[in-house]
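Thread: quick sanity check before group meeting

JM: Hey all, I'm pulling together slides for Thursday and realized we never actually wrote out the predicted structure for the chain we discussed last week. Dropping the sequence here so it's in one place. If anyone has concerns about the input, flag it before I start.
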Amino acid sequence: MTRKRMPKILVTGAAGQIGSELTMALRNRYGNQNVVAAGHKTAPSPTLRDSGPFEFIDVTQKETVEAVVDSYQIDTIYHLAAILSAVGEQKPQLCWRVNVNGLYNILEIARERGLPGIFCPSSIAVFGRETPRDNTPQETILSPATMYGVTKVAGEALCDYYVQRFGMDVRGIRYPGIISSETLPGGGTTDYAVAIYYEAIANRRYTCFVGESTVLPMIYMPDAIKAATDLMEADFALLRHYSNYNLTAMSFSAGELAAEIKKHIPDFTVTYKPDSRQAIADSWPRSIDDSAALNDWGWQPDYDLAAMTGDMLERLTARHAEGRLYP
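JM (edit): ok, ran it. Output follows.
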């Protein structure tokens, strides 16, 4: 039996890169009033704020989440609140508190109330220098080089524990770099692959913080959202993994991305000045084996590099013409 669609959903981290678009997709799918967006400090966009309920919470303070869950009778949580890789290296203690303690609070709230569905994304940051970097397997060595990666390994183990120990339905994806036309970068190592499009439109030049030959797995936001909703609607009995499905759509180098943009904007130029984020990128996979997601719940991406670049530039060019390139 396919897992039923849940009518009362809470999205934590709803003002972030994934959350802002996933929330709108869920509202379109299940109804605006059935999807509660929640953030910590970042003010929501007018679209997010005006299209349905929005609440401020702190996932490290369990009672603030409980109040929203109980007030709206929430039965499914998409838990996206997190400190990302680059910021996590600057503030490792905060990264642990938000990413691990916050997740623990979410899982305990779900356990205590018998909530039937939790989605908590993981990341390719769980891998490291001892992990095969090409076609990284579903089951392999996890040796993260960042506090963000450490918290995601802990999170995967914690989620799987709640599945095995308490019989809960907890699901997650190891996201690669995510590229979006709707939200600005939020402190991740793959942010260059988002910023480069904005700078190509605005200034026709970009200084990239990773080297030209740096290859990383990526996914376009529409596919990232589709993966989350498809996994949550899959038959739980068919899932061989729970919180740690490998996922990807494409892999490319920073130079290949620049070359694809130049097909549309011939005078675009890129210089490469790697900074501290280069070491993080070098510890991550170049390509991902996501055959488990294909086999278990039919995962297939819709966008490759060319299709994504065409769509990104079309959207950003239209916004720039209206004087509102940056969200």
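AS: nice. The longest strand covers residues 215-220. The two ends are 41 Å apart (CA to CA).
JM: adding both to the slides.
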